[in-house]
Amino acid sequence: MKRRRTPVLACSVVGAAVVALDGTVLTVAQPALQRDLHADVGQVQWTSTGYLVAVASLLVFAGRLGDRHGHRRVFAAGALGFAAASAGIALAPGIGAVIALRVLQGVCGALLQPATLGMLRTAFPPDRLATPIAVRTAVIGLAAAAGPLVGGALVSAYGWRSVFLLSVPPTLALGLLALTTREPHPGRTEAPARATPGGTTSDRTAPGGTASAPGLAALDPLGALLLAVALGLLVHGLVEAARPGGAGPGALAVAGAVVAGTALARHERRAAHPLLPPELLRSVPVVAGTAALLAASAALFGTLFVATYFLQDVQRLDPLTCALRVLPLALLMVLGAPLCPPLQRRYGPRRTATAGAALLTLGVLLLSRLDATAGAFPVGGCSALLGAGFVTLMVTATSVVVHRAPGAHAGVAGGLQQTAMNVGPALGVATATLLLTLVPDGGFVPAQGAALPALAAIAALALPAALALPGGARGTRPEQAPPRPGRRPCVRS
């Protein structure tokens, strides 16, 4: 069993890192792509928006596919598809082909991302899961920090197409490795049906830990479609709202997302096999962990958006100097992630996550007090607080979400976690853009604008969510459901 964990950990960590690296290197490559393909700014923006909408709308359904058919298979399909789409983009003749292939890449990324957590959940026992999640988070932080440097070097030396070729070898290798790796099935040890605190029972589980409902109905295709429409419209609306003159279309898209979300809620209450299992949504640790991740990611990425304009437009720093000013954020994420599991074991998820949320909020608040003359030390200090707080909260909340989810719904839980991490940044950037436009003269100076105080308030919303997490040092273990009425409890030797 232990030997099987090594390839699973490699697939999970490297797969998540490749996706993170791909997103950051693209930002550097977009200007060269625009010039080479004679595209306008709106078309180039859709190379990012199309990918983001596809990923956010399909993450939960992809997690459900993993629960039903095995996370290893879904991961392999996503990795191989991601490699093929990346190679296609590198050979694309025009901007239209790039946009279409980026959407396809987003679909494959949606298959890949929840499976990286689902495979860890099936391969590692709950009391040892925090360490691989911390390793995964550290590598993601390292990839995100290295992305601009790697992308800039590749674009300067070989052109923008080399950026997309970068992800082909690792994803191809990971897909083949996943196909040759035998997936462990902890779900074999679960009872045929499990009672929930509300008195209902979950679906009967198959040997792989998946629900045994037959056919397409078990995947809840209508629920998946409604969720995809709701999340797709929400992300598109937030992205549109962040553009000049996009407030109207953005509001319409968000309104459409609300309508689709309402229809989804009504459908899920009546569905025999809902896409979002009731026992998962009734789990306070899962909901609280997801909410904390949503608030924290919105606050962090919105703050970075404001800080970038402050450093480059107000202080007139070049991009490299700007990146060095905020480098402590990436360093603290990489170095702090391995410290999170022992902190959880010593103090419990509640206190650990609350400390992380407090550090993140404090970092945004202190950054909001900087004026136009702020030097490298105060900016770096605030960045360090942001990095330390975010990584502590992210590792802890992710561990709780994955641990406390039933094994049969590990993929859906991973999809919810990844959805929060994709929707949060769009929400934070849209909030920052809206508030920056309200103070056109001094908005980019933190001490004179309203954006960073608002983002600090969003970061503070992670505090009550963190306080709702389990308090004990063993609080990340899966909840043990009470035995069904009339049945003797199962006692393991």
From TrEMBL:
Residues 8-474 form the Major facilitator superfamily (MFS) profile domain. Signal peptide: none annotated. CDD domains: MFS_MMR_MDR_like (cd17321). Residues 183-212, 473-493 are annotated as: Disordered. It comes from the Bacteria. SUPFAM superfamilies: MFS general substrate transporter. Its main location: membrane. It is a multi-pass membrane protein. The chain crosses the membrane at residues 43-62, 74-93, 133-154, 160-179, 222-239, 245-265, 286-311, 352-370, 376-402, 423-439, 451-469. Keywords: Antibiotic resistance, Membrane, Transmembrane, Transmembrane helix. It is found in: Cell membrane. PANTHER family: EXPORT PROTEIN, MAJOR FACILITATOR SUPERFAMILY MULTIDRUG TRANSPORTER MFSC. This is MFS transporter.
